Amino acid sequence: MKASVKTVIIKQALFLITASFIAFIAALYEKRVIPSEEATIRRLCSDASFVVAVLFLSAGLLLFINHWGGFDSFSYAIAKLRHKTKGSYFDYIKEYHAAKKAPSVLFLTTGVVMLVVAICMGIFSMTI
After folding, report:
1. Cα 112 from chain centroid?
2. Which of the residues 2, 52, 111, 125 has the least number of beta carbons within 10 Å of its own beta carbon?
3. 104, 45, 102, 20: which is closest to 68 by C-alpha?
4. Count of CB atoms within 10 A of residue 102's CB?
């Protein structure tokens, strides 16, 4: 059974959030942070939010680059190696782009929101 695009995107987003949470816990453990050190915890939260933002923005930019044809030659080469296409490159690209939908902006908007949160938390942790 093939999963829908929305399900795949939600699973990937949850994976990225879980990975950043694990990175945050690992950073806390490495620094041996005492819970009363609020400034350090805020700084680590800011760093973890920044990592999540970079991951989401990178994934979103890769989706847009793929949508606009940045990886068409790679997809054609892979299809050619797997013997899934018989036509020329230009025929393959026409069919490939006709079947494509516009990429979701979920990754980009989440990345921008997380980047704003990371910057605000970073500024807040420096002022206190």
Report:
1. 11
2. 2
3. 102
4. 8
CB atoms within 10 A of CB 48: 22
Q: Tokens 């959030």 sit at which residue? A: 17
pTM over 0.70: no
Using CA atoms, how far residue 102 sits from 3, 32, 54, 75, 90, in Å, is 18, 45, 22, 17, 20
pLDDT in tens, 24-38: 677 666 666 555 566
Q: Which residue has the tokens 């949508």?
A: 67
Nearest to 78 by CA among 96, 94, 61: 96
Q: What is the DSSP letter of 4?
A: P
At a CB cut-off of 8 Å and minimum separation 6, what does 16 contact? 52, 55, 56, 59
| Phi then psi dihedrals of residue 3, to 5 deg | -80, 150
